[in-house]
Structure formats: structure tokens, C-alpha cells
Write a structure and sequence with these properties.
The chain is an alpha/beta fold. The protein has helices spanning 6-12, 15-19, 21-24, 75-83, 95-108, 123-135, 148-162, 171-179, 190-198, 202-215, 219-232, 235-243, 249-272, 293-299; strands spanning 47-51, 55-62, 66-67, 86-89, 165-166, 183-186, 276-283, 305-306. The strands form two sheets. Strands 6-4-7-2-1-8 form a six-stranded mixed beta sheet, sandwiched between helices.
């Protein structure tokens, strides 16, 4: 079974992808490298709006890791955020929630029965895995305590951090930092997001991790392409890049489609309940391609208007 690359999974919208950087941080070397010459389109990152007579909801797609100096926050995004009284992300992203997320990932993503990560790999996988770790300057046993799903996420972050990408520069965190005293809410819990990966069969977790290992030489090229499409405001281009790796239908259903349907229901209920203006910031993959949040909203006769 071919799974998507862990990076594609992260861009699809799991805030866990960025949060797991707490485990990666100790292994990453600091660097001053930055992404060069990303094209900037006239409209900027895509944003949509749904509304009724007393409620407006903005839908803004995010990327969870970015180069520190990439400029993307513009007047249109600021106006939408400034007009909003509530900011909604995939999971809560305040310091206490992030600390709890890290603790949960460490408890759920670490073996407690004496199993080691490398004991799950065959001879060829072990050789490939250990070579990849050596390329990062990490010893072979560095991630032995981790379950394959968490190792896969971590190993997809490390090469990016070493080349100038920073989870702390991710769009979600910038939005939250600019939200000020606005009410914050979340569409999901940390337990739910971790459960998506921790619930995978062990064989699938190993395959997932090995996809990350084998994709490490091209992971920066992949994210550069995704971020370029995002900055240009091209959700179709972003979906094309992302879906090139997201080839397992069951995982796509778990990571994207079922969650998109649930979020569309949340939006409909919010429109029908509390008046006001809401700014929703979720992984850009949820607002791109087929079976996007907008597609599921359309099934509910809710029109999504592109405003940027």
C-alpha cells in the first residue's frame, strides 16, 4: 500500500505536523538559509467567504512551516482578521495547548513495551533509514523510541528546518499572534489528530515513515513548489502538487475528505447559530482540489465566494 508522503499529509492540514517540531528541534541545526525568489502573485494566498444575513465566515488556507522571512500577510488578510471577533484553527494553538499537544505526542508516539523502531524494519529498510539519519548528522539509534508515524513526521521536518523553514513562522502561528484578544476556537482536538496516525496499522506506519525517508532528498523541492502555489493564490496548482503524493484513498479519506465534510457541517451550524464574523485558518489542502471544504459546503447549498 502506497501512502502519501508525511509532508503532503502535513500540508493537507494536520497541525500536528508543525507541533511535532518540538521533538525535531533537538536534532536540527540552526541555519540562515532562506527560500529564494518565491513568486508572489497579485492576489496573494487564497481566501474565501461564506455569509448569511448576520454571520460572515472567512476561510483561509495555511501552510504550517515557512521560511522566516517570507512575506505573505497583506492588507486583505489583515482586514478580514481585523473584522473578525473569533479566530478558529484546526486545534487550539495557545502555549498551554501546544505544551499539552507535545506531551500527548510524546506519550502516544513512543514505545512503552521495549519495542524499538529499527526492530520493525527489514534489512533494506534499515540500511536506507540509517543512511538517511547519517545524512542529518544523527546517530542510528536517534529515533529508536519513536513509533514509525511520529518518526516519519519528524524526519519530514528536520531537513526543512536545516534549510531555513521554521514551524514558528507557519501561517497558523502568525494568525494567532495577530489575533490579539479575540476569542479562539478549534475544529478538532489534539487527541483526534494524533489518533489519525496512531491508529494506523503498524505496517502502514512503517510504510509511511519510509516514504518520508526516501523523500528526504526532494522534500525541500516539494515544499518549495507547494508554497509557491500557495503564495500565488493557486489552490488548483497546490492540489496538483499535493495530490501527486496523496495516492492512498483510505488515508486521503482520513486526512482530508471526512474532515472537510465535518468542517462544512461545523460552518453550517455556525452560520445558523451565533451572529458575528469568524476567521477560519486551516491547512491549505483542505481548501483545494476535489472534495474540498467548499465542495462540501456547496452540497449544503452554501456558496463560497473567493475574496482573494
Amino acid at each position: 500500500m502506497k501512502l502519501s508522503s508525511p509532508f503532503a499529509a502535513g500540508v493537507a492540514g494536520l497541525a500536528l505536523f508543525a507541533s511535532s517540531s518540538a521533538l525535531a528541534q533537538d536534532q536540527a541545526e540552526t541555519t540562515t538559509a532562506v527560500l529564494t525568489e518565491l513568486p508572489v502573485g497579485p492576489e496573494g494566498p487564497a481566501m474565501w467567504k461564506v455569509s448569511d444575513e448576520d454571520t460572515t465566515i472567512y476561510l483561509f488556507g495555511t501552510v504550517h512551516v515557512l521560511p522566516k522571512d517570507l512575506e505573505w500577510y497583506d492588507a486583505e488578510i489583515d482586514a478580514a482578521l481585523s473584522a473578525s471577533d473569533t479566530v478558529v484553527t484546526e486545534i487550539k494553538m495557545d502555549p498551554a495547548s501546544e505544551a499539552a499537544m507535545t506531551q500527548l505526542a510524546q506519550s502516544r508516539g513512543v514505545f512503552t513495551d521495549g519495542t524499538t523502531l529499527r526492530s520493525l524494519l527489514d534489512e533494506d529498510q534499515t540500511a536506507t533509514y540509517e543512511t538517511a539519519l547519517a545524512g542529518l548528522g544523527a546517530p542510528p539509534q536517534a529515533f529508536d523510541p519513536l513509533k514509525p508515524w511520529l518518526a516519519g513526521l519528524t524526519l519530514s521536518i528536520l531537513p526543512l528546518m536545516q534549510q531555513g523553514y521554521d514551524p514558528n513562522a507557519g501561517v497558523d502561528k502568525v494568525i494567532i499572534s495577530r489575533a490579539g484578544e479575540r476569542t479562539q476556537d478549534a475544529l478538532e482536538t489534539a487527541e483526534f489528530q494524533i489518533g489519525i496516525f496512531d491508529g494506523l496499522p503498524q505496517e502502514a506506519q512503517v510504510a509511511f515513515m519510509m516514504e518520508a525517508v526516501e523523500g528526504m532528498p526532494k522534500v525541500k523541492e516539494t515544499i518549495d513548489s507547494m508554497v509557491a502555489e500557495w503564495v500565488e493564490g493557486d489552490p488548483d496548482g497546490l492540489a496538483a502538487v499535493m495530490n501527486a503524493d496523496l495516492t492512498d484513498e483510505a488515508l486521503a479519506e482520513a486526512l482530508l475528505y471526512s474532515r472537510n465534510a465535518t468542517w462544512a457541517e461545523w460552518i453550517e451550524n455556525r452560520l445558523d447559530s451565533t451572529p458575528g464574523t469568524v476567521f477560519i485558518a486551516v491547512g491549505a489542502g483542505h481548501l483545494a482540489g476535489e472534495k474540498s471544504v467548499q465542495d462540501y459546503l456547496a452540497e449544503r447549498d452554501i456558496v463560497s465566494e473567493r475574496v482573494q
